[in-house]
Amino acid sequence: xxxxxxxxxxxxxxxxxxxxxxxxxxxxxxxxxxxxxxxxxxxxxxxxxxxxxxxxxxxxxxxxxxxxxxxxxxxxxxxxxxxxxxxxxxxxxxxxxxxxxxxxxxxxxxxxxxxxxxx
Length: 119
Known about the structure:
- By secondary structure, the protein is mainly alpha-helical.
- It has one domain: Four Helix Bundle (Hemerythrin (Met), subunit A).
- The chain is 77% helix and 0% strand.
- The chain is built from six helices and no strands.
- The longest helix is centred in the N-terminal third of the chain and has 28 residues, at 25-52.
């Protein structure tokens, strides 16, 4: 097996992802590359929608982060997106707003982390 892409403190569940991708680092790298492109756009859309208070559109994007984050093993992102999605579904927008900056920060961290790791 190749050298690991991520360090333990990177917050990425590399082992689970590799198991999903038949232990193919080449495929995992492709998924990570696509994920980075996606979350760069999503981050900007979330910022706009947050300012506009478009809760349902915002929730759709946050919901999508649960799946895409899981596909690359982004544990913290999945946790944040899951909490935010649940709060918005329950009509607790004010509470969900408190998770906006942590989600943006985590997306930014991943956008900076992943390209360095997959080169």
